[in-house]
Amino acid sequence: MSEAYIHETARLGDGTRVGRFAVIGARVSIGKACEIGHHVVIHDGTTVGDGVRIDDHAVIGKQPMRAPNSAVTTGSEQPPARIGNACLLGAGVVLYAGCVLGTKVLVADLATIREHVTIGDFTIVGRGVAVENKCTIGRYCKLETNSYVTAYSDIEDRVFVAPGVLTSNDNYIGRTEERFHHFKGVTVRRGGRLGVGSVILPGREVGPDAVVGAGAVLTTDAEAETVYTGIPARARRPVAEEQKLENQGWID
């Protein structure tokens, strides 16, 4: 504890333990029975709930950097990050200021969650996942290893995103001023599933309980309860009844 830097205005709950060389900034609030690993940095004003574990070398609540030519990052100061009760944050995780995690969210090693992002209760953000700014992720989602959620995306509850999924928000691929008026991420409705290595192009919507198969490139909206495969992806068949979300026996 003596080797950590804890600002005099920071508050730590009963039973919370802080590892060696951690840095806890001004006005940080950490709840009861938390485990803060070695070399963790928690920036000013961050709120951490009860029973949270933050592993070694994580950085929580950092302000975003803005390149002079950035199209989607603002230069304004973001509000402090907020982490709900019983969250688990892995080694090397980076959570930006303006990020809000619900209850029992797991963010695995080396994942990055940007500003203006909310993550719903019980969601899993896998190893190396990147969630860009201005995104909403629902409850009970699974974003698996090395998937990429582009800025301005909306992912509803119970969505499954397989490893290596890629999404995009810019049909102009970084050229012409016109692009600044048309940024649009992807929307995945409740129970949608994206197969390993699939690609979802800007502005596309995956309907409730729809499936985009492995390696597919979705260039159109995917209708509800329909399986899409191929390049470009086409509707192939209905989702099997036993595979539908409503038939899994889950309460919500």
Number of domains: 2
- The CATH architecture of the largest domain comes to 3 Solenoid
In terms of structural class, how would the helical and strand content be classed? mainly beta
Strand order of the largest sheet: 3-6-9-12-15-18-21-24-27-30-32-33
Quaternary structure state of the chains depicted: single chain
User: How much helix, percentage-wise, in residues?
Assistant: under 10%
Can you identify the CATH superfamily of the largest domain?
Answer: Hexapeptide repeat proteins
What radius of gyration results from the CA coordinates?
Answer: 19 Å
The major beta sheet can be summarized as: 12 strands, mixed
Mean of the pLDDT scores?
Answer: 95
Shape: globular
What's the short story on this structure?
This protein has 252 residues and is mainly beta. The chain has no helices and 33 strands. A hairpin with a 4-residue loop joins strand 32 and strand 33.
Mind explaining what this structure looks like?
This protein is mostly beta strands and about 250 residues long. It folds into 2 domains: about 100 residues, 3 Solenoid (UDP N-Acetylglucosamine Acyltransferase, domain 1), CATH 2.160.10.10; about 100 residues, 3 Solenoid (UDP N-Acetylglucosamine Acyltransferase, domain 1). It contains no helices and 33 strands. The strands form 4 sheets. It has a 12-stranded mixed beta sheet with strand order 3-6-9-12-15-18-21-24-27-30-32-33, with no helix packed on it. It is globular, with a radius of gyration of 19 Å. About 40% of the residues are buried.
